[in-house]
Amino acid sequence: MATQDVKLPDIGEGVTEGELVKWLVKVGDAVKADQAVAEVMTDKATVEVPTPVAGVVKELKLKEGAMVPIETVMLTVETSGSQAASNAPTKAAPAPSPAPVAAAAKAPPPSAPATSVMSSSRGGLEVYPPAADSRVLATPATRRLAREMGIDINQIRGTGIAGRVTREDILQTKGGATTATTTWTKPTAAPIKAAYQGTPGAAEERVPLRGVRKKIAENLQMAKQIIPHFTLVEEANVGELVRMRSQAKEAAEKSGTKVTYLPFVMKALIATIREFPMFNASIDDQASEIVYKGYFNVGFAADTPNGLLVPVVKHADHKTILEISRDIQDLASKARDGKLALEEMKGATITITNIGSVGGLYATPIINHPEVAILGMYKIQDKPLWNGTSFDRGQFMNFSITCDHRLIDGAVAANFMKAFVSRIENPSRLMLDMM
Fold first, then answer.
1. pTM for the whole thing?
2. Over the stretch 236-265, which tens digit does the pLDDT of each residue have?
3. Strand, helix or coil at 328?
4. What is the set of active-site residues?
């Protein structure tokens, strides 16, 4: 038998270290070549680190939460002599695309117990569920979910773009008739404990602040310390916008694209920024300079199971409503799976947060440093609308603009919102703005 070190490879993007968020294996587990063994988080992107060889995990060198410089040995794998590989660095699975996997190994007989997921034999490793075939399109997170639930992903017909198997496909398979030859058994719920009767301190739970949540905390704290925030709120009659979006939605669904209000708001925001260029700027504190951007990369806040992420629609001013909708749909899907590339979260010149998709009348969002403003959009409400002789049903939405007071004054923000709301209330103006 021989052993092979598995190191944290060069992830690229100038990254020199990452945080070990989670081990995907434990000592004694059988692993296949190119199987993901750990999740490492850099900036706001999480990548999966694969093992270059098949074998059995002999030792985990690090604890979850540790900062790991590149080329550091993370674990060792015990291999047979014929399986031993060279010590050349491996490549971490890039965030936007699935990590390569080996061909599906022979599945155990149907009588194999559901809890026996991996076993080894002299003829090689037998794995159930089988590894995803290279022809199956799915993110590493989706592949892992299928493995953990005991579902053969090779037997699932994907409903995503280009036949990609999505997280929802896996969950629906679990909820309905599972196509795998072995069924997934739901863990038994822990018994409910009696109400706590002791001192308050013992009723507390402490968990490490790490991963994406740690990065979010660091970035927001920095933004609040550096930027003097102020927020202004305006109400807009969005009846015409609702009708325009409804028409666009029906047309776009024929091509498989979902159109929300966000692309329209992006277009109105960009048109308004052309009148008020200071909203598309940043402050270089070291050089004491204001940097005005001649391009429009619009970030949008995405609520994910891993926390708040901000994907960026690049060059949104050159894209149609339909093209922006496709970008949002694709980026939001990657964000939910935790597979956004670093490049897909960089370069924003201003950000929109759509709190209305969850609820709420208004909020005071925190600016995404080094930007100088963030636009908030909230839920649509029905209100009485006076038409001059009687009341009609009106549809209204609140919008907020939170600004960096070092660059933007209150009067400028008020005029900005007046111009923005005018476009939102008369969305046909966007056609003129784009000409």
1. 0.62
2. 999 999 999 999 988 888 888 999 999 999
3. helix
4. 405
